[in-house]
Design brief:
Layout: H1 4-21, H2 39-48, H3 50-68, H4 73-107, H5 109-115, H6 118-137, H7 140-143, E1 158-159, E2 174-175, H8 177-188, H9 192-205, E3 209-212, E4 229-232, E5 239-243, E6 248-252, H10 257-264, E7 269-270, H11 281-286, H12 294-297, H13 300-303, E8 304-311, E9 316-318, H14 332-336, E10 344-352, E11 354-355, E12 359-367, H15 370-382, E13 389-393, H16 395-405, E14 413-421, H17 423-439, E15 442-448, H18 451-462, H19 464-469, E16 476-483, H20 489-501, E17 507-512, E18 517-524, H21 529-548, H22 564-571, H23 574-585
Parallel strand pairs: 3-4
Antiparallel strand pairs: 1-2, 5-6, 6-10, 7-11, 8-9, 8-10, 12-14, 12-15, 13-14, 13-17, 16-18, 17-18
Helix pairs in contact: 2-4, 3-4, 8-9, 15-17, 15-20, 20-21
Length: 598
């Protein structure tokens, strides 16, 4: 077993390895004793057998030439006696030397590994490694970030810290060549080969593999219910190419939304998908994210042109070319977008970009009723006004935002608008929307035309979740979402609002009213067991209401762990087809298991 000194040495080695690879690496340490069987004893026994053979050969070698010389029997006897005595002494000395030398040589780790039968070594060491992995490392998948590496313990082991003072009975810090390639590949921005090897290794051992981006998903999409290996792709942050003339770019999966827009700004381009959180592009593609700009620019479904994906069997595939349209074969890009890491690991994304508008103007407008606010948006869309953003926040959410972001908005249902275009076109849009708002009971428009004012306004909107949770001191948040046809949105929100008003748990409504998607954020007291039951019941009524209106149980959060039962309710037998696709692409079930469906 490992002692305190051994563990300290292992920790020092881990720190040293992290400094040299720029990635966090965790592996299993296994005991050396007993892993290689009784090979040294067998070789020592073999050496002992050399003695009699040498004695015999020595006697024959000395006596045979003398007999051929024609000596007398007495002379032959005397010489043979001396020769036999000398041969015996020499054989004993040589036997002892060979015995000691054999023990020394066989005790060396490389020799022991080379002499041990391959099957015996693999079975014993793998079994022990898996036992220790399950006992010590599975909990790290929810706690630690970085690349968590599981060592295969095959004959290609390479010692990292042979001179770090670890006790002889402990196998020092080791890693597999494939795992080393993974870390180096991630650092260089060339993850295909190393990551593919890691995926194959996980498939060989049956180890679940859960891709991790920024951790901003809200339906348990990145949790590890069966344990496994959490692969953090957030360090894959290279923007590989920007094709300004073609309005597209290719980035690694760990690039953040804000990082990309900062890089594009000088070229007059921007990436419009804005889910609120500063999520990774890979995570946004995996969950088919959308957000505040979806009413004009669409969701990740429209924004993704192609993907590079590592499949469950360790292949690296590209789903399409960079052309804006294609009718070549199945649309694999759309298959992987929204698959939540269950079909493959997205490592590169090619995105559609847009020109930064000449003029941008933002405003808020309060309404006496939810119906008046929703009708204003629906009528604007019917008139063909290309609203860039239009968000709805109910009175409770406005109260929370005022307190959190130090604003002074009227505590009424409020629309947040943003208009893009030329100066003249933006002015025309604003005038039309103002007329519609006046007709539907809207109040005064509050403008934020300066960049810093717009940023402050949308920052308040993006932090609405934290504002809602802080309506209740010491609370935790539970967010859910649905999406319905916009003609049913006012009805769906009104009925949901009635449920929330009757609840003892504080909750707010906010959403992307332009595409019929809205969220409810509950502020739950973790010490009140009744809160969970009450919120669960409200959420069930909300989802049932959306499905009855021909909507969906989730507009952008994804299924994850939280809404698996509702997916079956929503799509019925189509879920069996999804399962068939999952089995075809991931027969071992190692990629983000238990997500979307069981």
């Amino acid at each position: 077993m490992l002692g305190p000194a051994d563990l300290a040495a292992v920790e020092a080695a881990i720190k040293d390895a992290e400094e040299r690879t720029t990635g966090e690496i965790y592996c299993v340490v296994t005991e050396r004793s007993g892993d290689y069987g009784e090979t040294p004893l067998a070789w020592a026994a073999g050496a002992a057998l050399l003695g009699p053979a040498l004695l015999l050969l020595g006697g024959v070698h000395v006596s045979a030439p003398d007999l051929l010389g024609g000596w007398s029997a007495a002379q032959v006897g005397e010489v043979a006696g001396r020769a036999a005595r000398d041969a015996l002494i020499g054989a004993i000395v040589l036997q002892a030397a060979l015995f000691v030398l054999t023990l020394v040589v066989v005790a060396l780790p490389p020799v022991r590994r080379a002499l041990t039968p391959r099957a015996f070594k693999r079975d014993r060491v793998r079994r022990r490694a898996l036992e220790q992995f399950a006992a010590k490392n599975l909990h790290l998948t929810r706690e630690r970030t970085g690349v968590l590496i599981f060592v295969s313990f095959e004959e290609r082991m390479a010692e990292l810290i042979a001179d770090e003072g670890i006790a002889a009975q402990v196998e020092p810090r080791v890693w597999d060549e494939a795992m080393a390639a993974l870390v180096q590949g991630l650092r260089r921005g060339e993850p295909g080969g190393g990551l593919a090897a890691a995926v194959r290794l996980c498939g060989e051992f049956g180890i679940p593999l859960i891709p991790f981006g920024a951790g901003t998903s809200v339906e348990g999409n990145a949790l590890a219910p069966r344990g496994g290996l959490s692969l953090d792709l957030s360090r894959m942050t290279e923007i590989l190419e920007v094709n300004a003339e073609d309005f597209d770019c290719t980035v690694q999966a760990g690039v953040r939304r804000e990082q990309l827009n900062e890089h594009l700004r000088d070229q007059g381009l921007f990436f419009p998908i804005d889910p609120g959180a500063n999520a990774t592009i890979g995570g946004m593609a995996s969950t088919r994210a959308s957000g505040t700009n979806a009413v004009r620019y669409g969701t990740m479904r429209e924004a993704v042109l192609r993907l590079k994906v590592v499949t469950a069997d360790g292949r690296v595939i590209q789903t399409s070319r960079r052309a804006r349209k294609s009718s070549a074969g199945y649309d694999l890009t759309r298959l992987f977008v929204g698959s939540e890491g269950t079909l493959g690991i997205i490592i590169e994304v090619t995105l559609r970009l847009h020109a930064i508008p000449e003029a941008i103007s933002a405003a808020t407008c309060s309404f006496e009723t939810i119906g008046g606010a929703v009708d204003t948006v629906v009528q604007s869309i019917q008139l063909g006004i290309p609203l860039a953003r239009v968000e709805i926040l109910d009175d409770m959410q406005i109260r929370a935002v005022n307190a959190w972001s130090k604003l002074s908005l009227p505590e009424l249902t409020t629309l947040f608008f943003e208009f893009h275009g030329s100066e003249r076109y933006v002015a025309e849009q604003i005038e039309t929307v103002k007329e519609l708002a006046d007709a539907n009971g809207g109040g005064e428009f509050r403008w934020a035309e300066k960049t810093e004012d717009r940023n402050a306004l949308w920052k308040a909107r993006h932090e609405a979740y934290y504002a809602a949770v802080n309506l209740r001191p010491g609370a935790i948040g539970w967010a859910t979402d649905v999406c319905v046809p916009i003609s049913r949105l006012a009805e769906c929100i009104a009925e949901t609002k009635h449920d929330l008003d009757a609840s003892s748990v504080p909750a707010t409504i906010l959403g992307h009213v332009g595409d019929g998607n809205f969220h409810v954020v509950f502020s739950i007291d973790p010490n009140a067991p009744g809160d969970i039951a009450e919120v669960t019941a409200i959420n069930a009524r909300l989802v049932r209401r959306a499905l009855d209106m021909d909507g969906t149980c989730t507009g952008e959060h994804g299924i994850g762990l939280g809404k698996k039962e509702w997916l079956v309710e929503e799509l019925g037998d189509a879920v069996d087809l999804m399962r068939a696709v999952k089995r075809a692409l991931d027969p071992a079930g190692i990629l983000n298991p238990e997500k979307i469906f069981s």
